[in-house]
């Protein structure tokens, strides 16, 4: 089955060039020049992967990925940053924002294809391990737990899974450290996990089970 890629860049000429190359490689491609358009159409497009520029009008790539990672249905979508910003600090900021790969312009199209294929191979590897090691009944139990979370609880959970400290989560969500501690304690109780490591693992299992369509 062909993979669907959402391509976002305010340079329409570059968009068309990359889109043509991706289509020639067998992908289904949707393009847009605005991040807000992408967010509004995620449910319709249902991309398997997003490729986005960082420097864009109205909403930049960092803000775009922040909004994507905060959503229950879309936080698991792989994101590749394509950007002219190639400084080390820019790359660190990109990875800390949750991107899966960072490619600096100009680049070889073959390198982009290699990155895309590698991301999909990793996802297939994880899904294979989930299928072989975790019973379906366990998947269903985990999914029912996650559906009971409030939006704020889910945001805290995603940041915990990404390795953020309570202080960093408080800063991200404009909350107090004390409140975040309460949320983390509540999440541990709801999931019956003993620590943040187990909580992060459970989040990964839930994300991968969704990739399998359960």
Automatic annotation (TrEMBL):
UniProt domain Response regulatory: residue ranges: 4-120
Highest taxon listed in the record's lineage: Eukaryota
InterPro entries for the chain: CheY-like_superfamily, Sig_transdc_resp-reg_C-effctor, Sig_transdc_resp-reg_receiver, Tscrpt_reg_LuxR_C, WH-like_DNA-bd_sf
Keyword set, alphabetical order: Chloroplast, DNA-binding, Phosphoprotein, Plastid
UniProt-listed Pfam families: GerE (PF00196), Response_reg (PF00072)
The UniProt record lists the keyword Phosphoprotein: yes
Modified residues (4-aspartylphosphate): 53
GO biological process terms on file: regulation of DNA-templated transcription
GO molecular function ontology, one term from the record: phosphorelay sensor kinase activity
Occurrences of domain HTH luxR-type (ranges): 142-207
Protein name in the entry: TctD transcriptional regulator
Gene encoding the protein: ycf29
